[in-house]
Amino acid sequence: MKLLKFLKSLSKEKLQKFILTVVICLIAIGAVVNFYVLKNVHELSVAKEAAGKLKTQIDEVETEQKGEAAKAALREQLRAFLGVQEQRLVQGDSFSWIVREMALLAEKHPVHVANVTPGSSAPSVLKPQYDLYSTRLEVTGAYDDLGRFVRDLENSFPTCAIRTLAMVVADATRNECRINLELTLLMQPKATPTSTPAAAPEVIGKKPNA
Fold it and tell me: What is the pLDDT of residues 79-96, one digit of tens each?
């Protein structure tokens, strides 16, 4: 209402100038909004979109790097595990190796390895690149101690397989028992005299000449 009274109080010439001023101001505001505000809003939107894509790329790279690091750590763990297992294969003079390892294992338990029978080797059906060494053990001790010895034997030699196990109990208290075990263990492949580091992977599965 006040604006209408104000406009009515103006002369025709002043009213025209006022309207022209208002129109120019509106045009100026529109230009500012169109060329500055909208441009900045568009640029801000583009910048946000680019930042979002960049963050996604960074996240993907970090995830990939973490995955590669995890794979590398797993490969190192596998190498270490395989290295340990390689050391637990029968090697050198098979009978001497068995006697020594069983004696060392028995030292951890109150049992006595009474007899180790010289064994024989034969190709493994499941792992053709390896030979299997078969032998028999006679171990004496208390019932529970013998059970722990057998458990430790399987844990200490993952490639060991117990084919047969027979127990004889001498008394009712089970303090004097004897077990007879038939075992098979993987043997470490023997390198041929002509093997070279480069050729080793190709000849590792070959058997030594009889």
Answer: 655 555 666 687 888 899
